[in-house]
Input
Amino acid sequence: MRMTGRAYTIFDTGIGRCGIAWGQAGVVGVQLPEAREIETRKRLFQLYPEARETRPPLNVELAIEGIVALLRGESGDFSDVTLDMAGIHAFNQRVYQITQMIPRGETRTYGEIAARLGASGAVHSVAQAIARNPFVIIIPCHRVLEAGGYADKISPHGGVISKRRLLSIEGAGGPSSKTLFDVLLPVAPPRLPG
Output
């Protein structure tokens, strides 16, 4: 049976009931818990009004397993998860690809991401891309902080969960040297369509 349109599901994690939405090309968004499940559902409806609740396909099951593991303080594997990047600006996609390579338990600053992109003057643009990340946890935007290690609320998809709480679950310290970040990491990013 071929899926048409978008769908979503709600699932349990160590921090509450999360949501995930997908379409034919892959995962389109993740929603961390709001204060109540009904608010999480309402947020998903606002973001994806055409989506219908249904059982997730394998690609989405893999994403859910990774999210649940990561929110239990374990490693989450998203290497076989396909993300639907249609409609996401190319600059933001580059920010997300670099952000995905940040190891669990480590953080970077917006400035370090901008420098890695070869656009050191684009700190504000990096911050905006991180704030718009629809793939929270899969693209670990919580690992990207302001200079000085300030850990604020994550994207609108973050619900009531703060970066600080997610970093605490992962056992992260403060911002680390970008020297380690420049080493090619053996982490496979989710496959992008195309």
Summary: The longest strand covers residues 16-23. Residues 58-70 form the longest helix (13 residues).
